[in-house]
Write a structure and sequence with these properties.
By secondary structure, this protein is an alpha/beta fold. It is built from 14 helices and eleven strands. Strand 10, helix 13 and strand 11 form a beta-alpha-beta unit. The chain binds adenosine-5'-diphosphate and magnesium ion (MG).
Length: 403
């Protein structure tokens, strides 16, 4: 074929105008399928707990412990009898009242404030968002009050709450007002969610503007610290939450830097795959350059209570075994002693728009589900222990300062 033949039809080039039109068509499609997209999520409900489950959560022993306390303690919520009248179910908010009553020693002590945990990794698809959501849900089931902040303009975490970022979230409802200085606290941006004990600061694509605003503000004012905007914005609410969890974008962006510097603890989910492992090594180099250029040079300091690598989406293969070895040699004690298995989550009814903690009673019969659920329970327990240690340090420091 003669490629230069003038008879040959040539497809038209794509103009910027065409891109505008494409954007309009896509937005039109989104709003027309909105109800379909929302449907399964509009039905998103808090989980319910049976008496045995509640008993486990409260650390009560012996069968009938819950029934015993329902008689003895009329101040505790008594749940609902099922239609047969034989079994009792407790809603999440009821279960949380029980857990807070019976697990008092695990709650945030007087004088301590929220521990902020950032879930980060520059690579996409390493389960940052899933990890943020499951940790938040898991900790709230243990009785803690949790705030999650979505700092990814793609708003995947916001979507997991059943909220469509670009249709139901305005820029002013994200952390963007902290960036442009029109707000100094996240408080006005906090919203309640379908999940008791779990509040959200959502994200939407307009939040991406932060990537231009922050460097420009820094340029015009050398005193400005672009990396501490989020950290200062959460100061106002630290006394009202037990844990604050920040989900971050899959890139070394200005928003990611803010998320890292706002953290007391860092969790890095890492699938044991070669490319993910290599990418994480770059993460540490860039992170170390950042702390050097932004903090150490100015004589500032920053400490973390913990930094954990979480093996996620782990499947059985020879590569997995090899990479797991590299990870353990490189990150040593930072690696959490548990693994989140790769699960065909789509086989579960509820998992499509949620996490293992959004399970339906049907899911509980599934063995794959049970394995994933147990792994996440262990994960939550490990993080909860580190949170307790961080609280202890806060209280001790306060006592020293007072003495
Ligand atoms: P990130 O926020 O790092 O980009 P996500 O949490 O969005 O990652 O997860 C990426 C994809 O992996 C999603 O489609 C998610 O449903 C899926 N995923 C999360 N956890 C698992 C798991 N344990 N097994 C299999 N797939 C998972
Ligand atoms: Mg994400």
């Amino acid at each position: 074929m003669d490629y230069l033949s003038p008879q040959l039809a040539m497809p038209p080039v794509i103009s910027l105008d065409d891109i505008n039109k494409q954007a309009e068509i896509a937005a039109g499609m989104m709003s027309s399928i909105r109800s379909t997209m929302l449907m399964p999520r509009a039905a998103k409900k808090e989980p319910v707990f049976g008496a045995d489950e509640l008993s486990d959560l409260c650390g009560l022993s012996g069968r009938g412990a819950v029934a015993h306390y329902i008689k003895e303690r009329p101040d505790l919520p008594s749940g609902m009898l099922t239609t047969t009248g034989r079994k009792r179910h407790f809603g999440l908010s009821e279960a949380r009242v029980w857990v807070r009553e019976f697990q008092k020693e695990k709650l945030r002590p007087e004088g301590a404030e929220a521990i902020t945990i950032t879930v980060a990794n520059f690579k996409g698809g390493t389960t940052k968002t899933t990890t943020s959501m499951t940790l938040a849900q898991g900790l709230s089931i243990q009785g803690h009050k949790v705030l999650v902040i979505d700092t990814d303009p793609q708003g995947s975490l916001t979507t997991l709450f059943g909220i469509l970022p670009d249709l139901e979230v305005e820029e002013e409802e994200t952390i963007l007002p902290l960036v442009d200085g029109s707000q100094h606290s996240v408080r006005p941006m906090i919203r309640k969610t379908y999940w008791d004990g779990l509040d959200l600061v959502p994200a939407c694509s307009g939040l991406f503007a932060a990537e231009f605003m922050l460097p420009s503000l820094q340029q015009s004012n050398p005193e400005f610290e672009f990396w501490s905007v989020l950290d200062m914005g959460i100061d106002d609410v630290r006394g009202e939450y037990d844990v604050i969890i920040i989900d971050s974008p899959p890139a070394l962006s200005y928003l990611t830097i803010n998320s890292l510097f706002a953290a007391n603890g860092l969790i890095i989910p890492l699938p044991p795959e070669t490319l993910d492992f290599a990418s994480l090594s770059q993460f540490w180099q860039l992170f170390s350059q950042l702390t050097g250029s932004l903090l150490q040079k100015r004589g500032s300091d920053k400490v973390f209570e913990f930094q954990n690598v979480l093996l996620s989406k782990v499947s059985k293969s020879v590569t997995t075994d090899v990479v797991r070895q590299w990870i353990s040699q490189t990150y040593g004690a930072k690696v959490l002693p548990l693994e989140i298995p790769r699960t065909a989550t789509t086989s579960l009814k509820s998992a499509e728009f949620g996490t293992v903690y959004d399970a339906t009673p049907d899911d509980l019969k599934d063995r794959t589900y049970k394995r994933a659920r147990e792994a996440y329970d262990q994960f939550v327990e490990h993080i909860e222990r580190q949170i307790a240690t961080a609280w202890r340090r806060q209280v001790t420091q306060q006592m020293k300062a007072a003495a």
